[in-house]
Amino acid sequence: MKKLLYLMLCLACFAGCSKDHDDDGKIKIGEDFTEKVSGVEIEMIYVKGGTFMMGATEEQGDDAYGDEKPVHSVTLSDYYIGKFEVTQELWEKVMGTTIRQQRDKEDSRYILAGVGSDYPMYYVNWEEAQEFCTRLGQLTGKNYALPTEAQWEYAARGGVKSRGYKYSGSNTIGNVAWYSSNSSSTNPVGRKQANELGLYDMSGNVWEWCSDWKGYYSSKSQSNPTGPSTGSYRVLRGGSWSSYAGHCRVSYRNYYIPSGRNNYNGFRVVLLL
């Protein structure tokens, strides 16, 4: 009887296991999957590698700035990227601090631009975003990181499914982004239209930290570029709730000091294979 009960429990456990992973816990390459950390889900989208033209391509028009040029060819390997920006709930589970505590590190008098479990995390500097990736990797046994600038732009453009939009998922910014004309704070993630890969808020809501130092583009073709080896500023991409439409374009480049925090900078993660 005890053996039968034990067998039934084992079968029930097996049936309830996530189908997003192989039996040994490895990811099924080529399929989206959901990671769970302390009861919080992280939905990860598979990005098939390929070659794309990075920078101020034709659809960016006269809005493009000089640091978005020259347009150049970039080839990337496969990777995964977060379906959503890192939320306040996920941050608190991994890092142990609330949005208010993060704000207070900068100045307790500063405003909170949206509070809630499904709101994007902000008041996070680049160094803390890096630490989040390290801790997430320790909790899951996987290689999480901030996206390179090239990985970010390729995903924002829709990867191999790209339709050549000016913003991430549309030529009409209001369809895909919370920005200065339709928002006065952050908004819960995933409320706008997704892009071609099923990614949300790549344009607008909060700026997203990338791993690269800010540098100038080269006209030479590149493979899996990681940016300059040194610098003074780290790259941010995508625009935010307080940004003009032109700053939410897929090729627009922003930057900030690595130790700086504010209420419009956040991030999302990639999983390196």
Describe the overall structure:
With 273 residues, the protein is α+β, with helices and mostly antiparallel strands. It contains six helices and twelve strands. It has helices at residues 2-16, 88-95, 99-106, 126-140, 149-156, 173-176, and strands spanning 33-37, 40-47, 50-54, 72-76, 79-82, 144-145, 207-213, 222-223, 234-237, 254-256, 265-266, 270-272. The strands form three sheets. Strands 1-2-5-12-6 form a five-stranded antiparallel beta sheet. It has a four-stranded mixed beta sheet with strand order 10-9-7-11. The longest helix has 15 residues, at 2-16. The radius of gyration is 19 Å and the shape is globular. The N and C termini lie far apart (45 Å). Residues 1-25 have low confidence and may be disordered.
List keywords for this structure.
four-stranded mixed sheet, alpha+beta, five-stranded antiparallel sheet, 21% helix, disordered N terminus, 6 helices
How are the elements arranged and paired?
Elements: H1 2-16, E1 33-37, E2 40-47, E3 50-54, E4 72-76, E5 79-82, H2 88-95, H3 99-106, H4 126-140, E6 144-145, H5 149-156, H6 173-176, E7 207-213, E8 222-223, E9 234-237, E10 254-256, E11 265-266, E12 270-272
Parallel strand pairs: 4-8, 7-11
Antiparallel strand pairs: 1-2, 2-5, 3-4, 5-12, 6-12, 7-9, 9-10
Portion of residues within helices: 10-25%
Determine Rg (CA atoms, Å). Answer: 19 Å
Compute the average pLDDT: 92
The secondary-structure class comes to alpha+beta
Strand order of the largest sheet: 1-2-5-12-6
* Shape descriptor: globular
Oligomer: single chain
Low-confidence stretches: 1-25
- Output the helix-strand order: HEEEEEHHHEHHEEEEEE
Largest sheet: 5 strands, antiparallel
Strand fraction band? 15-25%
Number of extended strands: 12
Spatial gap, N to C terminus? 45 Å
Instruction: Provide a count of the helices.
Output: 6
